Amino acid sequence: MQLLLLLAALLLVNYTFGQGKAIITGKITNPLSDEITVITYPNPLIPEEKETTVELNGNTFKLEIPVTETTLAELVHDNEVVPVYLEPGYSLTLSFNGDKFLKTIKFEGKGANENNYLAQYTRRFDEVEDYQVLPDNIKLDEKEFTEFLDLRKKDQLKNLEKYTAKNPVSEKFKAFSLSEIAFGYANDKVTYPALRQRVGASKNYVAPSASFYAFLDQLDMQNGLAISPAYIAFLRNYTAHFTKAAGLMETDKLYYKKNYTLAAEKLQGNARLLAQANILKQSIQKGHIGHTEEMLQDYKAGSKQPDVVAYLEKYLAENSKSALGSLAPDFKLKSIDGSEVALSDFKGKLVYLNFWQAGCGLCMIELPHMQALTKQLQDKNVVFVNVGLDEDEAKWHKMVTTKQLLGTHLYLKGLDAELVKRYDLKDVPAYFLIDEEGRFVTIKARRPSDREAANDILRHLSQQGQATNK
């Protein structure tokens, strides 16, 4: 009896181990390098990749990749990359010619049908220009563009049906393929107007007709898969579409909060959690820290994925020092007249902060524009603070006095100063906009030469005035 239990336990261990990984062995003709790598993303909500790399043994290799659930990975050889679909327990053998990577790749073994289809799909639909939105199809008008997408989707579905009729694939893979097709279509359509404007395809922009977005009401959002890149991209652009339709742009303080709220209103289940996690990542990078913290607390209460919450909390902590809405590091420096001036002295005013050097070519190009901007807004509630970072203080002093530069001028010796690190300066000139409470409005303010620089300042002052009057 004990022997039978031991054998059963051993069988269970071996089964579990086999199910917790995928094996890829292969042979490369004309290798491009001496190694091959598979990159996996264990959690689609956490952009942390895991690499499994082996050196070639002559021109052969064997990779053992940890796989606990269905995943889309990347097979990398030198500069060549091909998608690989993996399920636990897959045992694949592949061969390819390094000189013709995608065209010659062929899979055998468990999971071969799925991956041969994926390679064929990539060659046919991702590599052929006629099926791509850019560079030419984006120039089509609304009706023609929809016809292009309809035709492409029809070809993709027909191709999948024809292939799987002769080469059976798993239900999970079929669901993944259908997700890619459906949401690739949806994403290209929902981003069409903005992309058309961005590439200048339409000088006289005409907003889409009322029927253009009707397809959104017919989509089953729960049919998308988290491992489907097209689905993730669509969710991001789906909420952005409605946010922009509400009149908010990415530069607006409430943009990401509105995105997050719309995701809660329009999506449910995994679709909502996927969308909101991605919105939070974007908000941490570009949004207002106060709103980001508020959204994160809401997500934490509703999410059942503690590892995702832990990642977002860590990511926020790493980026909070320079996040919009966080306090700008205070400083006290010597001014051009020898007195000491602190950033906090300007509390109650909007601050346009400029780090520059008298020996910097681009700074010199921006100098007359900085003069013009300062003069243009001299009667507004904004102060222009310029911190010179030259090693030679005399050179800085001469430039400021000789040119009779407007605004407040302070001096800090060199780019190695501690304040430079606190502001995470990589180069000069660098411009920041700091609000009346000493918090970052933006860590990448427009340069003085940008015609919109003054409008950004006036827009903030107008919004601040409206908030004060309420």
Layout of SSEs?
Elements: H1 2-19, E1 21-29, E2 35-40, E3 50-55, E4 60-66, E5 71-77, E6 80-86, E7 91-97, H2 101-104, E8 106-110, H3 112-126, H4 142-166, H5 171-190, H6 192-198, H7 229-245, H8 255-266, H9 269-286, H10 289-302, H11 306-319, E9 332-335, E10 340-342, E11 350-356, H12 361-376, E12 382-388, H13 393-402, E13 408-411, H14 418-422, E14 430-434, E15 440-442, H15 452-469
Helix pairs in contact: 3-4, 4-5, 5-7, 7-8, 7-9, 8-9, 9-10, 9-11, 10-11
Quick recap of the structure?
This is TlpA family protein disulfide reductase. By secondary structure, the protein is α+β, with helices and mostly antiparallel strands.
Keywords:
single chain, alpha+beta, Immunoglobulin-like, 4 domains, 7-stranded mixed beta sheet, 4-stranded mixed beta sheet, 15 helices, 15 strands, 19% strand, TlpA family protein disulfide reductase, redox-active center, disulfide bond, Thioredoxin_ResA/DsbE_sf, Thioredoxin_domain
Question: How would you describe what is shown here?
Answer:
The chain is an alpha+beta fold. The protein has 4 domains: 16-127, Immunoglobulin-like, CATH 2.60.40; 130-235; 246-326, no CATH class; 332-469, Glutaredoxin (3-Layer(aba) Sandwich). It is built from 15 helices and 15 strands. The strands form 3 sheets. The chain has a 7-stranded mixed beta sheet with strand order 10-9-13-12-11-14-15. It has a 4-stranded mixed beta sheet with strand order 4-1-7-8. It has a 4-stranded antiparallel beta sheet with strand order 3-2-5-6. Helix 4 packs antiparallel against helix 5 (171-190), helix 7 (229-245) crosses helix 8 and helix 9 (269-286) runs parallel beside helix 11. The protein is elongated, with a radius of gyration of 28 Å.
